[in-house]
Amino acid sequence: MDHKYQRVALNDGHFMPVLGFGTVVPEKVPMSEALKATKLAIDAGFRHIDSAYLYQVEEEVGLAIRSKIADGTVKREDMFYTTKLWPTFSRPELVRLSLELSLKKLQLDYVDLFIIHFPMPLQPGDQVVPRDENGKLLFETVDLCDTWEAMEKCKDAGLAKSIGVSNFNRRQLEMILNMPGLKHRPVCNQVECHPYLNQSKLLEFCKARDIVMVAYAALGSNTDKEWVNKNNPVLLEDPVLNSIAQKHRRTPAQVALRYQLQRGLLVLAKSFNEKRMQENFQVFDFQLTPEDMQTLDGLNRNIRYFEDSEFSPHPNYPFSDEE
């Protein structure tokens, strides 16, 4: 880790800040809040902004980044911006189009990281989530290796500095790593990861292949979201997590984030609350003990907040595998 800037070297030579700000807008919050929140996040110290075509806030997030460059808070090279290839753009001929659409909304010349959002292609078209007349998802069969080859071309064209994947299991990662003529390895795999789902086997696999694992839902998730499993316990209310937080005079969220950083993950924190945003960034000035880490490891229950079960009939559904 580059401790001065709290960033890590990727396998292609670029650097990625270890703590990122997630830009999914909370339910019942206007999309315009993404502009204000992203500005506040940059002011709080975040230099890694994670977004996606799906979130539909790239115009606001791009404006926030550009305004912070214009007022001298940051330079473009200080910022690390991630966007994602949505499954309706999985066909190789649509991959670059997807990235160009994001760049147009952002009004930026390049993104720092472009990742495949899900390994489960959907039929292309105007609908973000295409369905048939019965409400069933309209799946598509696309060879992920062909999609990856088109991702490589985006990197070669300079539209994305780095390329990676999200929500891939070990088998799907191996398929990319072993594809004939592979030019660029994925620099990262962004997955749900928190003390209730610590992904230790997948983490071990990624580390051995110099692929950075990035944790989303690192603080669990708010169960009022329609796609989140309602029966899951609330991570930040866990008594063990709270006990460790009290010991270090920290918030449970800070401990959950610090846990991932000490395991060697990069981590995304999402809050549109200014105070919590600032707290979430204050995770570099304390250390969890080996005993704390072991205790937190023991919380693993393989609980997944984001099961995306509607995708489960898809042959590429990644969460049926153990890792």
From TrEMBL:
Site note Lowers pKa of active site Tyr applies to K84
The segment(s) forming the NADP-dependent oxidoreductase domain are 19-300
MF term (GO), any = oxidoreductase activity
**InterPro entries, from UniProt?**
AKR, AKR1C, Aldo/ket_reductase_CS, NAD(P)_OxRdtase_dom_sf, NADP_OxRdtase_dom
- UniProt keyword annotations, A-Z: NADP, Oxidoreductase
Catalytic residues per the record?
Answer: Y55 (proton donor)
- Is Oxidoreductase included in the keywords of this UniProt record? yes
Q: Which Pfam families did the record assign?
A: Aldo_ket_red
Provide the binding site for substrate.
H117
Q: Which domain of life is it from?
A: Eukaryota
Looking up PROSITE patterns in the UniProt record yields: ALDOKETO_REDUCTASE_1, ALDOKETO_REDUCTASE_2, ALDOKETO_REDUCTASE_3
* Family, per entry: Belongs to the aldo/keto reductase family.
- Put simply, this protein is called Aldo-keto reductase family 1 member C3-like isoform X4
Originating organism = Dipodomys ordii
Q: Supply the source organism's classification.
A: Eukaryota, Metazoa, Chordata, Craniata, Vertebrata
